[in-house]
Fold this protein.
Amino acid sequence: MYYNNNTLLYLDGKFVKANESKIDLYSQTLHYGYGVFEGIRAYATEEGTKVFKVKEHYERLKKSCELVNIPFNSSVEELVDATYELLQKNNLTDAYVRPLVFCDPNMSLHRPNNVSIMICAWEWGAYLGDKQLRLTVSSYCRPHPRSIKIEAKVCGHYVNSILATTEAKDNGFDEALLLDSDGYLAEGPGANLFFEKEGVLYTPQLGNILPGITRATVLELAEKLGIEVKQGLFQPETLWNADSAFYCGTAAEVIGIESVDDKKFPKDWNDSLGKKIQEKYSQLVRETATTFSTK
Ligand code: PMP
């Protein structure tokens, strides 16, 4: 599904066959989840393949490494170029791109001396599908920001996400909604939350969530569209009383939320602010700066 016999991936400056590349079984990343990754999307546009906000993603990869003391030996520019070359070599246009910084063999709990970086890419439809989501509030909360670096995209943090998604699906829902450790609304296992009430958008403030690049894009789009957005700490009850809601993330893009624990949002998705943002997001990622308009 992710690769075939011809697929190439980028590994430490070289393009190598995916089915011939290996990771050392003694890697610190494999044993402790101590590695850092990104999720990026490429889109076919009139002017060729465009990797959306590619610099922002590699800047976040670098920052994630710095936050958790993992060496980052590449330049953002070199990785941007490698990404375009990788897509071209694999004949991919609309694709998901996954860079991963992983550590050398090391069984100690001390920062590594050497790391590798790989980038792979594959065709991937909208991660949460295109139907509105039925969510459930997770019994798991997001990790406390004093336990981990919440703003870093660290491999091991995703055990929390996997537990939450698996629990939600096992209980018959599409996806989980996680609160923070104080019980305020936080985010999805792989997406940020927005909700609408009386013409205003609300989203949890930074501090207990991953600062999503799509979240930042939604904030930019809302400003262009003249939509007011309030960021803060919100009790779950605020969401129960909302008119509509949506998740956003690179893999999920912008996707409407139908209900939380079977309580439906009253506003028709087609009339919601989320739908407007969804349409503008879809245009923005595929259009070039010169053709994009908020009209
Ligand atoms: N929160 C979490 C926990 C995530 O894993 C993601 C996906 N990276 C997001 C939010 C959305 O971030 P982005 O828009 O940068 O993809």
